[in-house]
Amino acid sequence: MTEIDRRRLLAGTAAGAAGTLAAASTHPAAAAHPQPGAKVLRTPERRFAGLPDYPFEPHYLRVGLGDGSRTTVRMHYLDERPAWPVRASGETILLLHGNPSWSYLYRHVIPPLVAAGHRCVALDLVGMGKSDKPTDRFRYTYQQHLDWLTEAVFERLDLRDVTMVCHDWGGTLGLRLLAEHPHRFRRVVAMNTGLKTGREDLPAEGWMHLATWLQFTQRTNPLILSDVVADFTTSELDPAVLAAYDAPFPDDRYQHGARRFAVLIPLTPHDEATPAFEAAWEVLETLELPFLCVFGEDDHVTGGRHEALSGRIPGAAGQPHTVLTDAHHFLQEDKPDEVAAAIDDFIRRTRP
Known about the structure:
Elements: H1 3-11, H2 14-26, E1 40-41, E2 59-64, E3 72-80, E4 92-96, H3 110-115, E5 119-123, E6 133-134, H4 142-156, E7 162-167, H5 169-180, E8 185-191, H6 204-216, H7 225-231, H8 239-246, H9 256-260, H10 274-284, E9 291-296, H11 307-310, E10 322-324, H12 331-334, H13 336-349
Parallel strand pairs: 4-5, 4-7, 7-8, 8-9, 9-10
Antiparallel strand pairs: 1-6, 2-3, 3-5
Helix pairs in contact: 4-5, 5-10, 7-8
Pfam families: Abhydrolase_1
GO molecular function, one term: catalytic activity
Protein name: Haloalkane dehalogenase
């Protein structure tokens, strides 16, 4: 099978997309949960009742579905701010999660940052967490995720002078957001993430097999997303915490967003997304704004090596990049206090 054939296989066809959408709307369990419409699923709120260590008030905004219709998608976010007697620092921290997590990942990082005087805004990407889940799996493209994020952060929330904290896919999206809107940011903290263009050495065949399996085992191989989190933390997570990571996904119809992320990584220089990634790097390689890497020593993706970012972005020069010991990919689970302390220290050292 040629590379083009594999890409077509993963991308699917419009007919396939229509079939998926029709199947979702006629699924026998469809009537069991209140849904906002045939194009979008919404996880029932009862799934999130009693989550451990997640007392935060939910907030919602709406963004366009992106299919040319007037359909909108509801995005969930947290907006935690210091209350008296804590003096506000005037800093806004945007926390972006990756796959297959959601804002729950930051539940132990947010409180110490708020206690330090910072405002914390943590979004759930579309298809994840408490945000809506489009039923058309082909709606989840890299550009659509970026469009949703751009509309939410800059048009709906109108965030400015932002400290971006980005992990995993939150960085792969957030670094493009930074490159396209650098004037909106003060500094960046990148955690176990990167921005691949397709020109790097990647296990392309292995990644392709994984992506293919994720797309074509729907309804035949249940995807237990909490297993991914459990496998890539050094600490043993409580069953209630693992259940919280599964809460957004009552069944496979809700998992299209999580399954599709693996397809979106450029594997070769011929990938259709490569030019946009390379254009982003042209900007990132000129940015002087402070840039810090906080990586996990045991991360299976990076092995704690952050030079692909810290060695190319000018604002990263001379910063106290941190590699946390006994921390795996989900370092917010393994070392939340150290993560929060690194962010707060970085903000205080680089304040104008």
